[in-house]
Amino acid sequence: MIRVTVEKSNDTYVSFRSKGHAGYAPAGEDIVCAAVSALIITTVNSIETFTEDAMELKEDDGYLFFRFTGVVSAQTRLLMDSLVLGLSQIQESCDNKYLEVITKEV
Q1: Tell me, what's the pLDDT at 2?
Q2: Of 4, 17, 22, 50, which residue is 20 to 30 A from 60 by alpha carbon distance?
Q3: Strand residues in 1-106 grouped as ranges (E)
């Protein structure tokens, strides 16, 4: 299962962590992993390309963590809202079996 944890403080995004593999299908054929990866990578690349917002990024096989290190702009909030919406819709469509999305107030 992929576990995604989104941390917010006063309705502002603080960090994001994705850990694990979906286990929906064998590696290279797992459409859940592919969908989650596409959303996350596109969001990170969009924040880096279209905003001035600073963040730290760490990644490894089946793991990604990023933390905002400054002010989070309205553009980044919209991109993050879109990411959480997309991930939540995948979670619902898979009956919560392969993806868990958690939002925490910190």
Answers
A1: 98
A2: 50
A3: 2-9, 12-19, 55-60, 63-68, 99-105
d(CA 90, CA 99): 7
pLDDT at residue number 18: 98
Number of alpha carbons in the 13 Å side-chain half-sphere of residue 59: 7
Nearest-5° Cα angle at 19, 75 to 7: 45
**How far, in Å, CA of 4 to CA of 64, rounded?**
9
Residue 40 has a CB neighbour count (10 Å cut-off) of: 20
Q: Which two tokens stand for residue 5?
A: 């944890």
Q: How far apart are CA 27 and CA 42, in angstroms?
A: 21
**What contacts 71, CB < 8 A, 6 or more positions away?**
53
29 in Cβ contact with 79 (< 8 Å): no
Task: Please spell the DSSP secondary structure of 45-62, one letter per residue.
Answer: HHHHHH----EEEEEETT
Residue 93 phi/psi, 5-degree rounding, is -70, -20
Mean pLDDT over the full length of the chain: 97
pTM over 0.85: yes
